Amino acid sequence: MLLRDGIVATLDPPRVTRTDLRVDGERIVEAGPSLAPAPGEEVLDLGEALVLPGFVNAHTHLYSALARGMPGPADPPRSFVEILEKVWWRLDRALDEESVHLSGLVGSIEAARSGTTTLFDHHASPSFIRGSLSTLRRAVEEVGLRSVLCYETTDRNGLEGRDAGIAENGAFLADEPTALTRGAVGAHASFTLSDDSLQRLAEAVRAASSSLHVHAAEDRADVDDSVRRSGKGVVERLRRHGLLLRRTLLVHGVHLSEAELLEAQAAGAWMIHCPRSNMNNGVGHALTTSFRRVALGTDGLDEDMLAEARAAFLRMRDAGRPDALPAAFGMLAGGHRLAGAFFGLPLGRLDAAAPADLVVLDYRPPTPLTADNLAGHLLFGLDRSHVRSTMVAGRFVLRDRRLTSVDEPGVLRRARETAGQLWERMQRL
Ligand SMILES: [Zn+2]
Question: Which residue of 20, 46, 134, 190 has the smallest Cβ count within 10 Å?
Fold first, then answer.
């Protein structure tokens, strides 16, 4: 297929060029001005639409896709731990196979409509653990996205639940990887895991040559618990258990010190920054000036990376960072490097041999658009309403604003019914 006459922009390095792209199979095979169509080749005229690399959501919870508008608890939570206990840990216990599958479909549809092509999901469904990751994979691949999946291991559902969580991660990682899906070893957070559990997680990481995806120091309670258990902070506790490795995903890091952040990143870990979630839970501000290897995550609020990047930018400005614009732009680009490391592909590039993961946006800039001011256009001008089409591995999953592989109205109808039943089950737990 020949995508003709797009304004093609990449983030790292920032580049804006009017160019054509030839896509064959999963990849871009040629990029340049005025490419001639090959015989029989489909030609799609983009009419100067903006083309960007598909966005990467480095931390989400697809299982929360059916929580929108959910009634809150009668007695409102007063702390971060109470938010978990009264809302999220009741929701995840009420999930069954059907609601996991539907939430995966709904979240993936949202992602496609937001130009997000890769999801790093952190999944929990304590009443349906075994097989939950392959159920989720089925949903995400049905829509046609890339994902890196893991199960959130925790002690909060007893040793049986913990062991089933570790086993689910191991079984999924041992399964043959598909073109679009990878695995990681998931863990909820230091404060819901004993030393023995961390040791078992480290064994699972080693056995699969994988890495951990874990919430770290999201709230002060996680740090206090780690000090109580080990006399040290969360980073040191994970390091002692051999869990601070290349491609470890440390999500939030709100209450990590500069020294802890630098140590973790020097060991190869990535910080995943979720500014909207941090505001929603009132947990505080991360020390973003010490983020070196960083990508953005929505933490399940939605799958909209442009909204997340704008929130990151505004929050850093509000905190007085003069370099907030390039910093937020860099965080968005960080997602490509992170996903690229998991897939072994140059994600984020839009040139010959790069994977054809891209988003086409109906954006008519009212001012000149150049490599120098691309960050300004991204953070002040663009939002997901501009997303016209989304391509993953050479296949349009959204084309001219229509999902290509799933019956979207049908999925949403089923999701509304299932969400109602899910909320009812929650009330009984
Ligand atoms: Zn999370």
Answer: 134
Distance 88 CA to ligand 1 centre (A): 10
Contact status, residue 257 vs residue 291, Cβ threshold 8 Å: no
Q: Rounded distance, CA 309 to CA 375, Å?
A: 10
143 C-alpha to ligand 1 centroid (Å):
22
Cα–ligand 1 centroid distance for 32 (angstroms): 40
CB 370 within 8 A of CB 9: no
| Torsion region of 226: left, alpha or beta (phi above 0 gives left; psi -120 to 50 gives alpha) | alpha
Distance from the CA of 352 to the center of ligand 1, in angstroms? 35
Q: What pTM did the predictor assign?
A: 0.98
253 Cα: distance to centroid of ligand 1 (angstroms): 11
The CA 428 to ligand 1 mean position distance, Å, reads 25
Query: pLDDT tens digits, the chain, 429 residues: what are they?
Result: 999 999 999 999 999 999 999 999 999 999 999 999 999 999 999 999 999 999 999 999 999 999 999 988 888 999 999 999 888 888 999 999 999 999 999 999 999 999 999 999 999 999 999 999 999 999 999 999 999 999 999 999 999 999 999 999 999 999 988 999 999 999 999 999 999 999 999 999 999 999 999 999 999 999 999 999 999 999 999 999 999 999 999 999 999 999 999 999 999 999 999 999 999 999 999 999 999 999 999 999 999 999 999 999 999 999 999 999 999 999 999 999 999 999 999 999 999 999 999 999 999 999 999 999 999 999 999 999 999 999 999 999 999 999 999 999 999 999 999 999 999 998 888
C-alpha 193 to ligand 1 mean position (Å): 16
Residue 408 CA, ligand 1 centroid: distance in Å: 26
Nearest CA among 115, 143, 135 for reference residue 307: 115
